[in-house]
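Database export, one record per block. Field names are fixed; values are copied verbatim from the stored entry.
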Amino acid sequence: MTFAELRALYDLPLYDLISRGRAAYLQHWQGGEMQLCTLLSIKTGGCSEDCGYCAQSARYQTGVKAEKLMETDAVLAAAQRAKENGSTRFCMGAAWKGVRDGDAKFEQVLGTIREVSKLGMEVCVTLGQLGETEAHKLKQAGVTAYNHNLDTSPEHYANIVTTHTFEDRLNTIRHVQHAGMDVCCGGIIGMGESIDDRLRLLEVLTNFSPAPESVPINCLMPQAGTPLHGQPPVDIFELVRLIAVTRIAIPRAKVRLSAGRTLLTREGQALCFFAGANSIFYGDKLLTAENPGVDEDRALLDELGLVPQPPRPERSAAACAESCVA
């Protein structure tokens, strides 16, 4: 879609926009299903990048200490707990600029992925920048989706990150697509950007071929010590509008209400779900930020009559692993 088309949607009266978002959602998805994803930081802190929102950057004094890469057994135990709690996608994140073929840490991650993939969950990783070789090895190990957010618009990007470019992000996404993994790609709002910036980011996403499988919409959780600490919270109606436009523009994507849910009321979350969000991160913690507790989320989903969405059979990690072995 073009920016003008997205802007026209965004500017509709709120109830009209929400109604159109709901209609697009019901056309492509089961109305009572919610994808539950668990996110685990397998390598926390010490990142060389200067992303202005991130407490894991070594450039800022945030109190987050650099930790070693988690051992496979510890990650596997966390994945098993996530599955038992109802998650159908397990996401692993590492605070790296990127990975390189032949590096011992990358080989360790590949081994961990192979073990996690045996649990039958969808497996997602976010490891920074990838080349073609690294992307294919992740696919072969059992990764079903790679998360690499664009964060914000091309125009606003340099105000947030200077250690890599918007085009660097797009190159990684191309490698992911060429390798045959699903693309999980969205952004963060509340970083001083304009409404136009949010829609220009969405314009880029709508022109991916194939379209993103998942679109995470994160609300900035300002971290003490980072350049973006002190930014005001995102207005709930702005968030709902963006979710509805995203649902209309990329109707077959899972639209994930990601970071920042602790800043929303139960009613605000319910409105986001009605407008088209059908995926959440599920568990007490994201990479370094707090997240609503499992019991709290279960109570909310029960109240709304929502049930966990099963993993897609054709894209489960176990099926992928078996086909790769064959």
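Remark 1: The beta strands are 33-43, 89-94, 122-126, 145-147, 182-184, 187-189, 214-219, 254-257, 279-281, 307-308.
Remark 2: The chain has one domain: 3-325.
End of record.
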